[in-house]
Specification:
The chain has 14 helices and 25 strands. The chain has about 525 residues and is α/β, with parallel strands linked by helices. It has two domains: about 350 residues, Rossmann fold; about 100 residues, ANL, C-terminal domain (GMP Synthetase, Chain A, domain 3). Strands 2-1-10-9-11-12-13-14-15 form a nine-stranded mixed beta sheet. A four-stranded parallel beta sheet has the order 4-3-5-6, sandwiched between helices. Strands 16-17-18-19 form a four-stranded antiparallel beta sheet, with no helix packed on it. The longest helix is centred in the N-terminal third of the chain and has 17 residues. The radius of gyration is 23 Å and the shape is globular. Belongs to the ATP-dependent AMP-binding enzyme family. Keywords: Ligase. One of its GO terms (molecular function) is medium-chain fatty acid-CoA ligase activity. It comes from Clostridium niameyense.
Length: about 525
């Protein structure tokens, strides 16, 4: 089992690379090695380069150019990788969007980023991308629609790379979002490179590693923190997972001899429970599992280590650019749901109390960060950002935290309202605003309710108007409004009036308690 460099010694590269320059350097050293496994197809590094060139030629031919923003909505697949790298190669900026987003979100993102094209993969019949593309075209007639199904007939050839600097924006990603619509995060080549470099060094990733891409590659954790790109950029093998069931995960781990993967706490709990009654899979190849996306308790970490005898790294990070971790295994004397190690050592981390003072050890406050791979602003957004950045440039995470010398940083909860459902961040305001258009809804409040598997379930409270309403009616209505599937409520509670605090604000703590014990909670 490879050791893990768990110490706070600072590390920093002697030089930085753009995404394509480093990837092509790795390809040159590993041409015959397998880069990506997608189903039954094994793609070598040499073939990966050919596909990137083919896709790049196609994108240029249909009119996509350097500096153009391009909405990329493709589930985990080889097509996602080819499209991502090809767009970056020609200097276009992929706007990476959740594969579950629907009309409302996609059209909003196109408007906000002034995207010139929408790239999708029509072969995924379970998701109506072709129908979505038609709606996009109807709304924005000048947007170029591009299905990757049409690229296979493009002739092979070499395409000149755009000469990017490391400080230029490589991709745009979505924030978790607590303002009704996700903020757009500009992520430079340098920011990605530093994540890749530091995790490769800290976690001793090598070309011998085999990575299971179990999480969506549209999320930072699944893509590069540490994820799919970290293994590709060291010459290892990444195995793409689409379904997400234990049977698929464990079959791939056993057959491909997976050594490294990243998952969310929801998946960790499902693995634990599955292994209680099915011990037939050989998981002995795994040496490291990173668990992030939402908080995980120390008992679950312990149970996971006892089931899968490997190093477990619990990851805290923000898409805006910050990562720290805790590392545990069977030899750990104590296990905490805390984050002790910074990935570079150059991060500037503080905890700020309500009065603006810096918190002392074991005092709680908001976690704020500043560092070499943290954004200083959002895309096309410069006003009214006092809630996201301090006056001296620290990014405000919105997380309530405290620091302990032995344990590290502990995340206590959120300062702002947010539902964290299986690692997907949901803004309650977006759901409330949508459902209040329903003729039977007078008022609505969405809250997160603790759940063993999902972390939090999405519970919607409604004060009905004139007529009662069912969970099924709520779901159908929100889907028609174009909300992504993961934002659709899991529970519905009908209520006559809101419980109030002493200062006459809606008591959301009381609502969560009602949701957990209410006989009237209608659940999926």
């Amino acid at each position: 089992m490879n050791s893990i460099n768990c110490y706070n010694k600072k590390i920093y590269p002697n030089r930085q690379y753009t995404i394509i320059s480093w990837l092509y350097k790795v390809i040159g050293d590993n041409k015959d090695n397998i880069a990506i496994v997608d189903g039954d197809e094994c793609i070598s590094y040499e073939t990966l380069q050919k596909k990137i060139e083919q896709y790049a030629k196609f994108f240029l031919r249909i009119g996509i150019r350097a500096k153009n923003n391009v909405v990329l909505q493709i589930p985990n697949s080889k097509e996602y990788a080819f499209s991502l790298f090809a767009l970056i190669k020609i200097g276009a900026v992929p706007v990476i969007t959740n594969s579950q987003f629907r009309e409302k979100e996609i059209i909003g993102i196109i408007k906000k980023t002034a995207a010139v094209a929408y790239v999708y993969c029509g072969k995924f019949s379970e998701i109506p991308y072709r129908e979505l593309a038609t709606k996009v075209k109807k709304k924005y007639c000048n947007v170029i629609l591009c299905s990757t199904d049409n690229i296979e007939n493009e002739k092979d050839g070499i395409c000149k790379s755009y000469n990017a600097s490391v400080n230029e924006t490589a991709i745009l990603m979505m924030s978790g979002g607590t303002t009704g619509f996700p903020k757009i995060i500009p992520i430079s080549h340098s920011m990605i490179f530093l994540h890749l470099f530091c995790y490769i060094k800290r976690f001793n990733l090598t070309s011998d590693d085999v990575y299971l891409a179990a999480l969506p590659l549209t999320h930072k954790l699944g893509l590069y923190s540490p994820g799919f790109l970290n293994i590709l950029f060291i010459g290892g093998k990444s195995v793409i997972c689409r379904v997400g069931s234990c049977d698929e995960h464990f079959s791939i781990i056993e057959n491909q001899k997976v050594t490294v993967t990243s998952i969310v706490p929801t998946i960790a709990r499902i693995w634990i429970d599955f292994l209680e009654y099915d011990k037939s899979y050989d998981l002995s190849s795994i040496r490291l599992v990173s668990i992030g996306g939402s908080m995980i308790d120390s008992e679950t970490i312990s149970r996971f280590i006892n089931k899968i005898h490997c190093n477990v790294g619990i990851i805290y990070g923000t898409t805006e650019g910050f990562s720290m971790y805790g590392m545990y295994n069977r030899n750990s004397k104590s296990i905490y749901n805390a984050y002790k190690y910074l990935i570079s050592g150059y991060e500037d981390v503080k905890i700020i109390k309500d009065n603006g003072a810096i918190a002392k050890e074991n005092e709680c406050g908001e976690l704020v960060i500043r560092g070499p791979y943290t954004i200083k602003n959002y895309y096309n957004l410069s006003d009214n950002l006092g809630d996201k950045f301090t006056h001296n440039g620290y990014y405000r995470t919105g997380d309530k935290a405290c620091y302990d010398k032995e344990k590290g940083y502990q995340i206590i909860g959120r300062i702002v309202d947010q539902i964290n459902r299986a690692g997907e961040k949901i803004d309650p305001n977006e759901i409330e605003e949508c459902i209040c258009h329903h003729p039977y809804v007078k008022e609505a409040i969405a809250v997160g309710v603790e759940d063993y598997f999902l972390g939090e379930k999405n519970c919607l409270f409604i004060i009905p108007k004139n007529k009662s309403i069912t969970l099924q009616e709520v779901r159908v209505f929100l889907k028609k409004r174009g909300l992504a599937y993961y934002k659709i409520p899991d529970k519905l509670v009908l209520i006559e009036s809101w419980p109030l605090t002493q200062v006459n604000k809606i008591d959301k703590i009381k609502l969560r308690k009602i949701a957990k014990k209410s006989d009237y909670a209608k659940e999926a």
